[in-house]
Amino acid sequence: MKFGKLQKKTNIRNRFLIIYFIAGSVLLLVFFIIYTNRLHRNIRKDVQIVPDLYSKFLGLPTDVNLEHFLFQYFMEEIIPGIDYPIILADSLKKPFSWENIDIPKKNYSELDEKQQELLLKMTRKMDRQHTVIPLKFSKENNKIYSYVYYGDSKTMKQLKMMPYVEMVLILIFVLLGIYGVVSSKRGERDFLWVGLAKETAHQFGTPLSSLSGWLNILSMKIEKEGNDPEMLTMLEYMNVDINRLNKIASRFGKIGSTLKRQPFNLHNIILDTIEHFKRRLPSISNKINIKFKSKIEEKEIMIDPDLIKWTLENLIKNSIDAMQKKGGNITVKAFSENGKTHIQIQDKGTGLPKSMYKKIFYPGITGKERGWGLGLSLAKRIIEEYHNGKIHVMKSELKKGTTFEIILPEE
User: Fold this and answer.
1) How many CB atoms neighbour CB 291 within 10 A?
2) In angstroms, rounded to a whole number, what is the distance separating the alpha carbons of residues 17 and 173?
C-alpha cells in the first residue's frame, strides 16, 4: 500500500466515522419513534373493545336480554379480533374451548394426552401470572361456574421486548462505534509509522550517497599513490558498512509500499541470516551457538527476501539479547506442513509471561533496557500484512526460554 493511499484511506475512515455517529444516532431515534408509535396504535386498537362495547350498551333497548347480548358480543366481536391465547374452562378448570392456540378445536376428551397436557400446562401458567377471570353467577352468589384464561397479546410481547431491543441496538451501535474509533486510531498510527519509515529512508539516502561518492574519490587516490593493504582493508570494511546502511534504508523504504513477491529459496535466506550472526557472535558473546535444522532445502515460496531477512534478524537478535547472561543454543527449525512453511526460533533465554505473548508485538513494548520496541512490531507487519502469514509466540517459560514461530503460505 502506497503512502498516499494510506493517508487517503485514513481520511476516508475518519469521515465515515463522523457520518456513522450522526446518521446512526438519527436512524436509531427514528426507529424508536416508529416502533413506539406502532405499539401505541396496537394498544389503542386492543383497548378499543371497551368503548365499542360501552357505546353499543348505551344504544340497547331496555327489553334486550343483557346476558345473551354480552355472550353474543364476546363470541362474535371480541374472540375473532384477539391475537392472544385464550382458554375457557369449567368450574373444575377443565378446558372446553380455546382460541389462538396450535391445538385442534374439538372436544377436550378427543385430544391426545400431549395436547391435553399442553392446555393444562398453559392454564397453570396463566394462573401463576394471575391472567385468569373467574365467572360467577352473581354478586350475591360467589359460586364460580367458569374461568377465562388469557395470555399476552403480540402487542404486549413487543412492549415487553422493547427495552431489550433498544438495549441491544444501542449496544451494537456503541460497539461498532468503538471498533470504528479503534480502527481510525490504528489507521492514524499506521499513517505516522509509514511516514516515519519513509522519512527515515529518505534521510538515510542523502548522507549515504555522499559517503559513497567520497569513498570512490578515496579509492582513486589510494590507487594513484600505490596500493596500501591496510587502507584497502579499511576501504573494504567501509564499503560493507555503507552497503549495510543502504540495505537498511531500502528496507525502511519498502514499508507502506506495494511489494512484488517473487519465488525464492527460503532455506538459503535463513542460512545466510544465521551465517551473518555467526560471524559476529564472537564479538557479541562467547557462550551462544546458533543451530539450523532445515527440511525445506529445495522449496521456493513467494516472498520479499529482504523483508523476510529483516524479520529473521530481529527475531534472532532478540534471542541473542535474551541469552546474554546465561548463554546456550539458539535453534532455528524450518519445515513444511499442510501447505505452509513453518520457521521456529527457540532460545534458552529469560522467557516471557503468558500475558506478554501478544503485547510483545505492540510498538513500544520491549523487555530490554534500551530500545524502542519496534523490532517485533515490524516483524508482525512484514509477515502478516505483506506476506499473509502469521507470527506468534509458540511457547515461553520464565528463565527457560521462548519459541517464536513464523508461518508462511506456500502459494
Assistant:
1) 11
2) 12
Question: Is residue 376 predicted with pLDDT exceeding 70?
Answer: yes
Report the alpha-carbon distance of residue 249 to residue 237 in Å, rounded. 18
Query: Is there a single domain that holds both residue 276 and residue 203?
Result: no
* Residue 133, φ and ψ in degrees, nearest 5: -120, 115
User: Domains in the chain: how many in total?
Assistant: 3
pLDDT digits (tens, 9 = 90+) for 166-202: 888 888 888 887 777 777 666 656 655 665 666 565 5
- Is 23 contained in some domain? no
Contact 85, 150 (CB under 8 A): yes
Given a contact cutoff of 8 angstroms between Cβ atoms, the answer to whether 173 and 28 are in contact is yes
CA distance 357 to 361: 8
Per-residue pLDDT, averaged over 361-387, amounts to: 71
Orientation angle between helical segments 3-47 and 49-58, nearest 10 degrees: 20
**Which CATH number characterizes residue 333's domain?**
3.30.565.10
Residues 241, 136 share a domain: no
Global confidence as pTM? 0.50
